[in-house]
Amino acid sequence: MTKKTKSLLLTITVNASRLLLAATFMFSGFIKANDPMGTTYKLEDYVSAMLWFRLPDTFLLGCSVILALVEFTLGVYILFGIKRNTTSRITVGFMSLMTLLTVYIAIANPVEDCGCFGDVLVLSNIGTLAKNIVLLALAILVCKNYSLQKNFVSSSIKWLIAIVTLCSIVGYSIYCIICLPVLDFRPYSVGTDMRAVLDSTSSQKKFDIKIIYEKDGKTLELSVEDTDPDSSWKYVETRRIPVETSHLATANFYVTDANDEDMTEDILYADGYTFLLVIPNLMKADEGCIDRVNEIYDYTREHNTAFYCLTASADERAQIYWNDHTGAEYGYYIAEERMLKTVVRGNPGLVLLKDGVIIKKWSNYNLPNEDDLQDWSKKAEEEKNKAHLHKKINKSEELSTKHKV
Fold it and tell me: In this structure, which CATH number among 3.40.50.150, 3.30.565.10, 1.10.3720.10, 3.40.30.10 belongs to the domain 194-204+245-368?
């Protein structure tokens, strides 16, 4: 093989590796920007499993936005060949750190999956380690031969690409925090028939039951067969995980009342519209939106619309705290915290069902106001009148047919 051929093959390999790195970083960064709250929850899992202290939720949310920004920006810089030497060195450093972290995760298994690609692509910890090793090898290859990277744009507009990337990914992250993810890959997206979810989960013959305890910032996860820990450990929640992992089965929607009676069917099989106020943790919930929450509750009472508050805070003290601080008059229905965080990215969040189908979701930052509710009420009344009119027409046609016979 001639020297020229070797050089050509190396150039092709370096640029192919560069494109694969760019695509992976941009995809990973975009997915995190699309669902910053989901990344925050994953970071919370890491912190609770690996550290002996908690970090503020706002700090972790900021970290999730920064992580999305770093990954997506690195991808763009690699793709367009911006600061090739510096960018390739940073990429090697970043992947070295991530690979070391995933070595620990693969061995200790502190979390079920790394969350690299959110809910779009779930990898096992071993799979994540293998992926990072491959990416690290590609990054080292590109770094050693950074001068072989082809320029796709002129140097005069690289600064513009950098600024647009920074502004767009930060802006998109903020928008998705306020208005919920634009692309919803979870099993509770708008348009999901929750009755089908219920049928799917109830058809499972086996559930993996996990009982969660907490002490001094550490989390203990036990199965039903394990011996209960000593009294110094505080009970947090019980998780019901279907053995089958289909898209609907992983939803695992299950709600009980204060007496531990299953209320799932009552909620999902209610006719017409149903509002679900989702508050995963009453002690950490945003109290700044409580006026709108109370307006929504008052509205549902006035218009005879179903309203349920779902929370993982089964502790009566947490419920009393929320009542005292917000003036809440509604009752509480208990569900698993992780499931509630999956339903809607907000604490609190709001979900609107119609005949068991999710038709709208809001975060705590954009809850509907009184005008929105009035508009929705008019729309609901119009739909009701149309349905009544169709009924009358159908009945009239039936009578006419019988008369002709």
Answer: 3.40.30.10
